[in-house]
Design brief:
The protein is of the alpha+beta class. It contains 13 helices and 16 strands. Strands 1, 2, 3, 4, 5, 6, 14, 15 and 16 form a nine-stranded mixed sheet that branches. Strands 7, 9, 10, 12 and 13 form a five-stranded antiparallel sheet that branches. Helix 4 links the parallel strand 3 and strand 4. Helix 2 packs antiparallel against helix 4. The mean pLDDT is 96.
């Protein structure tokens, strides 16, 4: 490579105004009165979004391939098209009260990378691909991260096809209806490396006044249903010492869920989000309480430690109070550590470009979780206002949008070769 090309690439930057304008144009499809987006997967609005994104890709000289679960792969050729592509992407489906940036940013940042390479006549050794994955949100059909999950063989195409929404419509039927059921078998598509750019969906970067989060991995998640059984009794005649109050014991354990997270820093998370009290009457001592427990941490070993911790606390509390406590695990998502080469590429790009940055972990699931099982993968976070996401008021600064895409550009170029 000659010195002039090296210099040009070192100084290469994306067009932030163009990227922002694309985000705002896509956000008009399914726009909500509060400034958000409702574009549920495989609806007519989703078709409009897919049509717009694939049109932009073709205008940028990319070829478009759709697989049987509706995942889209938009490719810019390289000098050596026998090499597996360096891929980036995310999703364009949203929550019912979603925002403009969640997922959408990752897809349009990839298209902006390609537009920038086109603008400067830069050819990469390996092809560049931008993907959009079907039904990442899981708000209309379950499971979540459906398209990337089928692609990674986490579950079968038939299982995904059979999923139904609240009206009984199937994934397969809706893919056919909107014209996005392709011919390629999911997974019959090599990947050299995968990067995903995303708003953080949390407050850490903003709180630390950092522009780029260099994501090392995604937290493991364990969900539990917990049941505390006592005995209903009249609130007036029953003395305090003779009560079997399931709610008082349950609330003690709920506090221990939070304390458990604090006992496993820095990435421990503990949340109780759902509570059902029986019989839920003003003047009856609760006889049974069922509640959810959500435990998360950065490694499977840490998640296992938290599991043992909360079970030991529950066993002691049951022994001390005489009330049975049952904890059933209902879901287990293993922690995903990203490839050090991709993590380092993100860190090097942020440093080279002069952006403030810090290590980060993702507390939410992303398509990159499944891609990391197939190829070296990494993620780039940028701040979002007040850490708010899955909300119509979700917001991000244009300069942060631009910075994250610049980091993506240089990380991908490092892997793709020039």
């Amino acid at each position: 490579m000659d010195t002039q090309v090296k210099t040009d690439i070192e100084n290469l930057r994306i067009n932030g105004d163009r990227l922002w304008a694309s985000l705002m144009e896509l956000a008009q499809i399914g726009a909500t009165p509060k400034g958000g987006v409702c574009r549920l997967t495989l609806t007519d609005l989703d078709k409009q979004g897919r049509d717009l994104v694939t049109r932009w890709a073709r205008e940028a000289g990319m070829t478009v391939t759709i697989d049987k679960i509706g995942n889209g792969f938009m490719r810019r050729p390289g000098r050596n098209n026998r090499l597996p592509p360096i891929m980036t992407g995310s999703h364009i489906d949203t929550q019912p009260t979603g925002g403009k940036f969640d997922g959408n940013y990752g897809v349009l940042a990839g298209i902006e990378v390609v537009r920038t390479l086109n603008d400067h006549g830069i050819e990469t050794e390996a092809p560049i691909e931008v993907a959009f994955w079907t039904n990442e949100e899981g708000s209309r059909f379950v499971p979540v991260m459906m398209g990337s999950g089928v692609f990674a063989k986490a579950f079968t195409l038939e299982h995904a096809y059979a999923a139904t929404d609240t009206e009984g419509k199937t994934v397969k039927g809706e893919l056919e209806r909107i014209g996005y059921i392709g011919d390629q078998e999911p997974g019959d598509h090599p990947i050299g490396a995968y990067f995903e750019t995303h708003i953080e969906q949390g407050p850490v970067l903003e709180d630390n006044n950092k522009t780029i989060g260099v994501v090392s991995g995604v937290l493991g998640i364990r969900w539990y249903d917990c049941t505390v059984t006592g005995m209903e009794a009249h609130a007036g005649p029953t003395p305090m010492a003779l009560r079997k109050d399931a709610l008082q014991v349950a609330t003690h354990l709920m506090q221990e869920v939070v304390a458990c997270a604090h006992r496993h820093p820095p990435h421990g998370r503990g949340t109780v989000g759902m509570v059902h009290v029986h019989p839920n009457s003003r003047n009856v001592i609760p006889g049974q309480v069922k509640f959810s427990i959500d435990l998360r941490n950065a490694t499977d070993a840490d998640c296992e430690s938290m599991d043992k911790d909360i079970r030991a606390v529950a066993a002691k509390l049951s022994a001390d109070t005489g009330l049975p406590i049952k904890i059933d695990m209902v879901s287990n998502y293993v922690a995903q550590v990203f490839h050090p080469d991709c993590v380092d590429a993100v860190g090097r790009a942020a440093a080279k470009l002069g952006y403030s940055h810090m290590p980060a972990v993702s507390g939410a699931g992303h398509d990159a979780v499944y891609m990391a099982k197939l190829a070296p993968s990494g993620m780039i976070f940028i701040p979002c206002k007040d850490g708010i996401s899955h909300n119509e008021i979700e917001d991000a600064k244009p300069e942060h949008i631009e910075a994250g895409c610049n980091v993506l550009l240089h990380a991908m170029l490092e892997r793709a070769g020039t």
